[in-house]
Each structure stands twice: as C-alpha cells, then as structure tokens.
Amino acid sequence: MATLHLVTGAPGSGKSTVLPHLAEHPFAAADFDELLDADGSLMGTVVARPSASPLWPAYNRLWVRIIGMMLRGGGPVLVTCPLTPDEWAAAAAGAGDAPPVAWARLDCDDADRRARLAARGWGPDRVVDAIEDAHALRRLVDREFTTSGRGAAEVAADLAAWVATAKEPRSRHVERARRWGAVEDAEASHTQEKRHR
Fold first, then answer.
1. pTM
2. Residue 149 has pLDDT above 60, yes or no
3. I need a labelling partner for 168 at 20 to 30 A (CA). Which of 18, 39, 100, 180 fits?
4. Closest-CA residue to 88 (of 187, 180, 183)
C-alpha cells in the first residue's frame, strides 16, 4: 500500500509557495487550500476563516476521501495541510483500510511568519493565532522542513528526498494502528516498548 505523507504547517509556513515546485517530482502532491476559491470559499461557503471552524471537520473528511482517490494509483502521495495528527485521525475515522502515514511539518521563524501574513493583510490578532498554532505544531510533529532563508524549490527537493527514502512501517504495532494518522504513534510505542524490555 502506498504511503501517505502529510505535511502540516501553520499559516505562513510556505505550504502554498512550495506546492508548485513539488510538480517536478515523481509523486502526487496537493494542498488543502486548492479546493477553495480565491475568497476562501467552497461552493459559495467561506471555509478559510476562523468563523467557519464548525465546517472544518466536514472539510477535513472531504480531503480524506480525495486522498483515498489519489492513493489508488499506488504511488506515494504528499498533501500539505494545517491539521494536527489527532485532527487527521478524527477526520479519517471509519474511512476504511488506512494507509501508513508519515508526518512532517513546514515551518519558518516567527519574524518571517509575521512578515508573510502581514503581506496577506492579516491583522495582529490573526498573526498571533498563527504563531501560536506554529508553536503547538512544533510540539506535535518532530520532522521539520524550514522555509526560512530557503527557496521554495530547495524545500520541495528536500521534501521529495524524504518521500523517496520513506519506508513503510512494518512493525506489528503498525498493523494494529488502523486509524489513519496513528502510524507514527504506533512506531513510537514500539520503540518505547523495546527500550523497556
């Protein structure tokens, strides 16, 4: 089964900027924002605003279905998104046979994030929220690809190298991790169990 590579990142981390450069590499790539119109809406409903947060679980489930279709080709798939592993697992619950999931995080330093979001016209409160989101994601996803001081093509090449070298987890714990997004938790549990033997 193909491995799903989920690359999370708070607003301003560079997900949309890196995405076009991933097209040069031999795997399918998509970003959660690609379904949205320029105003952040989908089918006339604004999704990309904090006031739309009650809609986000349904939007996440829509992406679970889309990614399932992308994985039918049998090759690796990389999707950039703003989700935590728990948010992904909640969206994917009940979605059927789960592929292995490898997690990474796009990030940048706080000064770069402030400048990028100010250029989008974000107010100070939204920028602070994005910085807090970035700090929370740092605690949840260890593997980092920074976009600070680096070109988008360089970051895309590093992501492509990660996808090319990623191996499907094979431990018995992974076989039991049937929720999408639970693969790395199972591997960590397996590693911890080995240390305590």
1. 0.81
2. yes
3. 18
4. 180
